């Protein structure tokens, strides 16, 4: 009683539960839920910029970010070079005390989350992905819920690490050779649709890919850019409604028509 609107940011599973409860009294709901966001890198991209963007896209906030770029979809001809750049940088991201200015990777939020992330890493190994770097717990001074920056290649779309939101520092790399259509098809092979990144020097190609990818926010030649005026929210099971911008305000309003006979 007395609640007209429910806004929730969190996991898709909890969001579904909130929708079920809200249905009993027909509450208005907006949901910003999980993601399995892709970074698509075409062969004509600036690979140095793309590697930095892919790295920050997944390892910023230890990957505990709804829009984390947890899938890297790279054109086959530049895969080895891009992977090499990413691995080199990832190995330098040593977990440590978040109060230390030199630290680039902090602790996960809890033991439960750390064990969940390590479980996904184990599934990646079991299901046949190639572990390029990381994959282990990395305690600091013998304690803490730290996990190494982890990168897998040879990931198939059906693997658990390609399908499920891990919410941790784990990057799944897959490749394509069929241009924009195949890249977009791989990007869309998920129940989620929160965000995506596209890397190419050909702006027409990038915009074509942006139209094809089903995601609420698409960044071109950058990642994790936000502005209070730009609406943010998901497609598919990443939710509905928007945060930020005028669209967010509309979610807290109701339209009323008033007719007056002045005769």
End-to-end separation: 40 Å
Radius of gyration (Å): 20 Å
Note the quaternary state here: single chain
The main pleated sheet reads as: 7 strands, mixed
The CATH H-level superfamily of the largest domain is: Aldehyde Dehydrogenase, Chain A, domain 2
Number of alpha- plus pi-helical segments: 8
Mean pLDDT: 96
Judging from the principal axes of the Cα atoms, what is the shape? globular
Q: From the coordinates shown, what is the CATH architecture of the largest domain?
A: 3-Layer(aba) Sandwich
Structure description:
- The chain is built from eight helices and twelve strands.
- It is globular, with a radius of gyration of 20 Å.
- The protein has helices at 12-23, 47-59, 79-90, 111-126, 160-163, 179-187, 203-212, 245-250; strands spanning 5-9, 28-32, 38-41, 71-75, 130-133, 150-153, 170-176, 192-193, 195-199, 217-220, 235-236, 239-240.
- The chain has two domains: 1-32 and 232-263, no CATH class; 34-225, Aldehyde Dehydrogenase, Chain A, domain 2 (3-Layer(aba) Sandwich).
- Strand 6 (150-153), helix 5 (160-163) and strand 7 (170-176) form a beta-alpha-beta unit.
- The strands form three sheets. A seven-stranded mixed β-sheet has the order 5-6-7-4-3-9-10, with helices on both faces. A three-stranded mixed β-sheet has the order 1-2-12, covered by helices on one side.
- It has 263 residues and is of the alpha/beta class.
- Helix 2 packs across helix 3 and helix 6 (179-187) runs parallel beside helix 7 (203-212).
- Helix content is 31%, strand content 19%.
């Amino acid at each position: 009683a007395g609640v007209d609107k429910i806004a929730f940011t969190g996991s898709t599973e909890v969001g579904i539960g909130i929708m079920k409860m809200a249905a009993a009294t027909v509450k208005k709901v907006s949901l910003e839920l999980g993601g399995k966001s892709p970074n698509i890198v075409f062969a004509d991209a600036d690979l140095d910029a793309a590697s930095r963007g892919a790295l920050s896209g997944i390892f910023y906030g230890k990957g505990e970010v709804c829009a984390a770029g947890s899938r890297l979809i790279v054109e086959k001809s530049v895969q080895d070079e891009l992977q090499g750049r990413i691995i080199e940088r990832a190995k330098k991201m040593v977990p440590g005390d978040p109060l230390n200015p030199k630290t680039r990777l902090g602790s996960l939020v809890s033991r439960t989350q750390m064990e969940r992330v390590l479980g996904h890493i184990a599934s990646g190994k079991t299901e046949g992905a190639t572990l390029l770097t990381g994959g282990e717990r990395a305690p600091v001074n013998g304690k803490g819920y730290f996990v190494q920056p982890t990168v897998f290649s040879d990931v198939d779309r059906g693997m658990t690490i390609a399908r499920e939101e891990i919410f941790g520092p784990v990057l799944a790399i897959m490749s394509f050779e069929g241009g924009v259509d195949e890249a977009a098809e791989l990007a869309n092979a998920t129940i989620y649709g929160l965000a995506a990144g596209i890397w190419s020097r050909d702006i027409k190609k990038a915009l074509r890919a942006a139209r094809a990818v089903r995601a609420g926010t698409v960044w071109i030649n950058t990642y994790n850019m936000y502005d209070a005026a730009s609406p943010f929210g998901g497609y598919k099971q990443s939710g509905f409604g928007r945060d930020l911008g005028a669209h967010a305000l509309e979610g807290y309003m109701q339209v009323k028509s008033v007719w007056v006979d002045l005769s």
